[in-house]
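Supplementary Text 2. Reproducibility record for the structural model of the 102-residue chain.

All settings were left at their defaults, and a single model was retained for analysis rather than an ensemble. We include the record here because the model underlies the residue-level annotations in Supplementary Table 4.
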Amino acid sequence: MDVTTSYAVLSGVGMLAFSIGAFGVLDAYHKRNAHQKRVDWLISLYVVGVLLTVVGFVLYGRWWMAAPFALLLLPADRAMRMRLEIRQRRAHLKRLKGSEEQ
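Retained model, structure tokens:
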């Protein structure tokens, strides 16, 4: 497989993946579907898509175009931290309610 074909495949699949995964990032930012695990999967798909796109650009020799795409990982990090905070709050609330019933 030549460099142009590998670039086209990697960046094409990567852009499709992070376009679909962006719905999970948006759900996390807007605190929707907090109890559904599919949001975590969508955020992971977003991260994989960004990484595939970055690898495609680097293999093609366009590292200066890959650098801005690597910055797209920052919203995914914040989204996962927001999801973790919601889970921790829910766990604390469940523990608090459980201790009141005893």
